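lol ok so funny story. i was supposed to be doing the assay writeup but got distracted and ended up predicting the structure for this chain instead. priorities right. anyway since i did it might as well share w the group, maybe its usefull for someone
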Amino acid sequence: YEITRYGTLIAWAKQLGRTDCANVLANNIKEEQATDRKLTEIAEAKVNLQAAE
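and the output, tada:
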């Protein structure tokens, strides 16, 4: 849910003329997405395989 909220928050910040906040939120979503990709890679490569045993 956290990642999905960023788009809305970025849009609101832009509508309010707060591009500074929109930029911070955009950077945050990039970090969240990178973390999600890394966790998915770990799950697919190790955790899920171990759970299947």
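The chain has one domain: 2-52. The chain has a mean pLDDT of 90.
back to the writeup now i swear
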